[in-house]
Amino acid sequence: MKRKSVLTPTPLLVLLFMMLSVQTAFSADKAALKTILTCQIEYWSVVHLDERDDDGWLLAWKATVSGDLTGELRYWFPETPPAPESIYRDGEVGYYLARWELWDGEELILSGESAGKTVIPTGEDGIWDGHGIVMRASGDLSPLKGRKTYETGTVIMPEDPAVPSTGSGMFVIY
User: Fold this and answer.
1) Is the pLDDT of residue 9 over 90?
2) pTM of the predicted structure, to 2 decimals
3) 80-87 contacts: CB < 8 A, separation 24 or more?
4) For residues 83 and 159, what is the distance between their CA atoms, to the nearest angstrom?
């Protein structure tokens, strides 16, 4: 009888240990648990600052990021776009190539590359969208390296050319 009482808690302890160790392993990597990370972005043009990186790419946009990730997103553009703007019947289409960085304060936590287009109907605000890839990820976000990105939003075209463009949209890692 005593032997039975000693053996009964052992399987329960093993089961409890297994449950706790699995939960601990997954909780250390929360970003990898979600298949899609979705963020809201609010952005503004900073091209007037004429800030360039070591390769001559221009810091064109900054954005506050909220949602599954938080921080400040920065978009860098090369001197010339990958293709010339196209005029169509009711507006124009511009193409872009960008390097983006997601900063948490002073720490770079993600970076990547993307390409896309901006459509601006005559006399209206624009809409942009692009696709890319996460090239660098640090810390708990390291499993995101190599994942694809999608970005989209509106571009509010101010009437006064001296006023920077703004907009809102989303940034998705999948």
Assistant:
1) no
2) 0.78
3) 82/115
4) 26
